[in-house]
Amino acid sequence: MRHSLTAAALAAMLLAVGAAQAQPAAGYTGPSTAAQPARAGQHGSYGGPSSVPLVTVKQLLETGKDEQHARLQGRIVSHDGGDKYTFADDSGRITVEIDDDRFPPGQTIGAEQRVELVGEFDKGLRKREFEVDRITLVN
């Protein structure tokens, strides 16, 4: 019986785990419908010119090809749970998938800040989303 837990102790542990998982995602401070725990990570990134085309959300949704590499500029307007966010520019909105380690280290991004996302368009029969490889703050 050394290793058994009382019902109260088990309930307390489950509440603690739930509270820890309710913390906002690392690197994003805007609206959220669901959150995941923050993860630490220190990653560098390339900051020079890119041959990846800059497109709008509307262009990507209307003419984008599956696995097309692209750059988007606009704002991450909400966290939708897990690694899903909503990104918007002047032409529309798209669901984006951002792993915690893709956010710039040591920086938080709010819903009002402009960013550039570099990644790959995922176009399926039922979903269209953008998988983010890199996020850069835009002045």
UniProtKB/TrEMBL annotation:
Region of interest called Disordered, as start-end residue ranges on this chain: 25-51
Superkingdom to which the source organism belongs: Bacteria
Keyword Signal: yes
Signal peptide (from-to): 1-22
Entries under InterPro entries matching the protein: BOBF_sf, CarO-like
Alphabetical UniProt keywords: Signal
Coiled coil ranges: none
Pfam families in alphabetical order: BOF
Name the record gives this protein: TIGR00156 family protein
UniProt organism field: Pseudorhodoferax aquiterrae
Source taxonomy: Bacteria, Pseudomonadati, Pseudomonadota, Betaproteobacteria, Burkholderiales
Gene that encodes it: ygiW
